[in-house]
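Retro notes, structure queue

What went well: the backlog is down to a handful. What didn't: a couple of records were mislabeled last round, so from now on we paste the full input next to the output in the thread. Example, using CoA-binding protein from Leptospira bouyouniensis:
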Amino acid sequence: MNVPDSDFKTLLQSYKTITVYGLSNDPIKPSHYVPVFIREKGWQVLGTYPKEHNVGEFQIFKSLKDVPKEDRKFIDVFRSSDKIPEVVDEILELGGTEVLWLQLGISHPEAEKKAENAGIKVISNRCLIIEYNRNF
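Corresponding output:
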């Protein structure tokens, strides 16, 4: 993680759109209710999920490559820690990402370092709801 906690508020205020990698169709999962919360606080939220769904009325893309480049600047990831190297490789291949946010319980130091070395701001093991409530 290369972003200090003290910069979270400014960072969040700098982006109007958050793309959620792995936005679930199950309303009881954090990968669904966290995006709902963030959308209710004013951000535009898009999602990726391999199966089509319209739960929560989000715009869902089958993969990150289908998300318009201008909407891939801030990516909030809900994938297991062992999948993060694949996610980082995909992000780096596509380009355009400025912030990689790994939700609470998710981290992969080597993959995070790779993203950081590519100039991406990386936050790991943090929940957007908790950080929103702490900073706003």
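Agreed that this is the format going forward. Reviewer comment attached to the example: The first helix runs from residue 8 to 13.
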